[in-house]
Design a protein that fits this description.
Length: 321
């Protein structure tokens, strides 16, 4: 009998709510009631919208009616069924069916809503739709007007920004032109000043070299050499250069810088013979300071000229620029 299985239909207060369970045939009625109550409770709790259920263990019916709760369900021949009920409210003796009542109430509400919808006439729906469309259209028109106004304001602001941008571009162009003119003027003045300072340095070097060669100054030295030398200006200056080389070589009073100038024919020639550096200056302002002349010497673009002028500067000032 232990291998026989018996099915028990468990009902909760109403025949519409049931749960079928499968139990061993040797189970007792009391065991079937316990299993049935657990199964139907789990089943009800899984249904959506059902409140928690508390069953009444003392109000359970089993069919067919057994002799007692110890009866083996396998000995019962007809279909097995049990009915369970919720616990009654405190103070009551009857067990209500709240779940079924809740379902019936929900069904009635749904039916009422369907009836209300069916009672609405089509022309009433159409009228309401037209009114809603008119209201929506009016709202859209208002929003469209606001957007147009905002668009007009944005266009006006854009036009103002364009005018301001054009003015800024014009002002920037004028500033750039003025800056270019100022830069050219400054650079032009700087170049002119440098040329003057180069000639000043050469004039000072010639006068000092004339003194080293036992003459008063450059002018007196050149005039003296012109009377004693046959030939043109180049021959006169060449004779002066030869004399300077000999004097610087034998001099014990000259600085090492001057001796270096005497040992470099290119530097000595730049000092004595005509050259582009000297010719670039139309006037010679001999009030230039040592620092200013040093800046102009270092500003020479040609490397060879700059090297020779630095040597002459060192010989004149006995220091490097």
């Amino acid at each position: 009998m232990s291998s026989i299985r018996k099915q028990v239909v468990v009902l909760y207060a109403e025949t519409k709510l049931q749960k079928t369970i499968d139990l061993p045939g040797n189970s007792t009625v009391v065991k079937a009631k316990e299993e049935g109550m657990v199964a139907i409770k789990d089943h009800l709790n899984k249904l959506p919208g059902v409140p928690p259920v508390s069953l009444d263990p003392d109000c359970t019916d089993f069919y067919p009616a057994p002799k007692d709760n110890t009866t083996i369900i396998g000995s019962l021949t007809s279909n097995l069924m049990m009915v369970v009920y919720p616990e009654p409210p405190k103070g009551q003796r009857l067990t209500p069916s709240p779940f079924v009542n809740a379902l019936q109430s929900a069904i009635h509400k749904v039916n009422d809503l369907k009836a209300q919808k069916s009672n609405v006439k089509p022309e009433e729906n159409f009228g309401r739709d037209i009114a809603q469309l008119k209201q929506d259209n009016a709202q859209l028109r208002q929003e469209n007007a606001e957007l147009r106004q905002e668009n007009a304001e944005l266009r006006q602001e854009t036009a103002e920004l364009r005018r301001e941008t054009a003015e800024l571009k014009h002002n920037i162009k004028e500033l750039c032109d003025q800056l270019d003119e100022t830069t050219r003027a400054v650079l032009g003045d700087k170049v002119a000043v440098d040329k003057i300072r180069w000639r000043v340095l050469l004039d000072m070097g010639r006068d000092q070299l004339a003194v080293i060669c036992r003459h008063k100054d450059w002018k007196e030295w050149k005039e003296s050499k012109a009377t004693s030398t046959a030939g043109d200006d180049f021959a006169i200056r060449t004779a002066m250069m030869t004399e300077a080389e000999m004097m610087l070589q034998d001099s014990t009073d000259s600085s090492e810088y001057w001796k270096a100038v005497g040992q470099d024919p290119s530097t000595l020639g730049l000092l004595i013979h005509p050259n582009n550096i000297r010719n670039q200056a139309d006037i010679a302002e001999h009030s230039s300071t040592e620092k200013a002349i040093a800046e102009s010497v270092l500003a020479l673009a040609t490397l060879g000229d700059r090297t020779h002028m630095i040597a002459i500067f060192c010989a004149i000032y006995d220091s490097e620029p």
